[in-house]
Amino acid sequence: FAKIDLHDKGPKGDLLIAIAGPFTHIPQAAAWFGLFLWASKGDMWYYSYAVYLNQLEENFPAVLFCSCTNLNICLFCFHMLPAYPLGGGHALGAIMLMRKVDKARVATVVAKSGLVVAVLLCINGVVDMILWDNSDFGFWSFMIAFIVVWYSTALFKRVADRNFDGHPIFYSTREASTNTVAAPAPATATNAETFELEGGQVATPATGRGKNKSK
């Protein structure tokens, strides 16, 4: 997707770029689920979010394909969260720009949405670490929340400075302005140039007068 340059298509092209990555997980999840149905012979007993040792012993391929299906579903949902720098946050900004929303308001909405997602990630981290005794998932939830807060703070700073140039969310709008080519200035004659007029006369720009052309 890096070789597909859609930025010059405006915010709509930016939206397509933002959702292209997350949406690749949908056909992958469908393919893995098809393999799961083949390995399990249609027995949904093997399909679960958690992996149990007795399932691994009975039908390892089915459990593996089930885990791959769940992984792609989780990745799709995660990347579509409306928090920058995730694809969902980028898509939210592109949709608002398509509706001609002011850049400052776009940045503010995306930043506030990111803070809400960061709070939810922190709550999820606490639940994982305390209730489910899963410190690994809890740690990564806090790390992702920290990154989202960092980028949201940077967006708030750009709103305060009224400086949106160079930010990826507004890249398509910058491209649109730089791709605008100014109309060429009309050609002007120098003092040394002459123009032939009707009746065999020539005019010089310096004097604007006509005189007979020498034979």
TrEMBL record:
Transmembrane segments: 15-40, 106-131, 137-156
InterPro entries referenced in this protein's UniProt entry, alphabetically: Znf_SWIM
Entry GO MF terms: metallopeptidase activity; zinc ion binding
SWIM-type domain mapped to chain residues: 49-88
Keyword list, A-Z: Hydrolase, Membrane, Metal-binding, Metalloprotease, Protease, Transmembrane, Transmembrane helix, Zinc, Zinc-finger
Tree of life domain: Eukaryota
Cofactor(s) this protein cannot do without: Zn(2+)
PROSITE patterns: ZF_SWIM
Biological processes annotated in GO: proteolysis
Stated family: Belongs to the peptidase M50B family.
PANTHER family: MEMBRANE-ASSOCIATED ZINC METALLOPROTEASE M50B, STAGE IV SPORULATION PROTEIN FB
Protein name as catalogued: SWIM-type domain-containing protein
Taxonomic lineage of the native organism: Eukaryota, Sar, Stramenopiles, Ochrophyta, Bacillariophyta
